[in-house]
Design a protein that fits this description.
Length: 259
């Protein structure tokens, strides 16, 4: 197992459990205790965790993994969701993409669609996510619009009033939201209030709003509200979603696609 793969696995275990012992982690990852101690020390230097005697705990009360450490989580579900979301986009439309692992997969799904291989432009993509803009910029048939703003290291998203200024001047056919939580009563939410504010503006500028979220994020709440369920037209999720959850969203006026 490579170091990056070990770090992703260790951080995911920490998020799930809150605390991890060296011997416990070594047994789960099938590596030596010395390797885990070294990994813990290096991750602690990056302030990704807090080192304790014999192990580590998550860094802070409200913990959010940076995007680069979240890509392996529920990867197959996110790819299925992404393809279904991409299929909702028509050629020539203007699409807004927020940051996040699922929306990054949406961008990749759009990039390989055969009917979007040509056009002037085949698609207009507006995003505040630097990684998404970087991946799509090599597609000459796509018109890429990047908001201004200050980069948020955890999600590669541009936030702040400079981003507001650009989004206030455009109109979108569809906004695709990546969220950390989506509840029929409390709406869509993010960890960070500045990130949520930009995502909210993106929704307001769109004719229709699609939330792309795996089932683990449904029925959950997070600190910063993006918008209410009444502003969301479609939720695309995976087939592990419960029928009760589907019913609550449909009663709130949200169409649910489980893939």
């Amino acid at each position: 197992m490579s170091r990056d793969a070990r770090w992703k696995a260790l951080l995911e275990l920490l998020v799930e459990r809150g605390r991890l012992e060296v011997e416990e982690a070594a047994g789960e990852l099938l590596v030596s205790a010395a390797t885990i101690r070294r990994d813990f020390d290096q991750l602690a230097e990056q302030q990704m965790l807090v080192r304790t005697r014999g192990g580590a705990v998550v860094h802070g009360v409200s913990y959010e993994l940076p995007l680069r450490y979240k890509t392996a989580r529920r990867a197959s579900e996110k790819q299925r969701i992404a393809k279904a979301v991409a299929d909702l986009v028509a050629p020539g439309e203007a699409v807004g993409l927020t940051g996040g692992t699922t929306t990054t997969e949406v961008a990749r799904a759009l990039a390989v669609r055969g009917d979007l291989s040509t056009g002037s432009p085949a698609l207009t993509v507006v995003t505040n996510a630097l990684n998404i803009a970087n991946e799509l910029a090599v597609r000459p048939q796509f018109k890429i619009v990047v908001t201004g703003g200050v980069a948020r290291p955890q999600s590669y998203e541009l936030i702040g009033p400079l981003a507001d200024g650009v989004l206030g001047q455009i109109t979108l056919d569809v906004a695709v939201l990546g969220v950390v939580a989506f509840d029929a009563l409390h709406g869509a939410a993010a960890h960070d209030e500045a990130e949520a504010a930009i995502n909210r503006v993106l929704c307001e500028r769109a004719e229709r709003v699609v939330v792309a979220a795996d089932s683990s994020k449904l029925g959950q709440r997070a600190f910063a509200r993006i918008c209410g369920a009444d502003l969301v037209n479609t939720l695309v999720t995976d087939t592990a979603v419960s029928q009760e959850t589907v019913r609550r969203f449909e009663e709130a006026g949200v169409k649910v696609l489980a893939v």
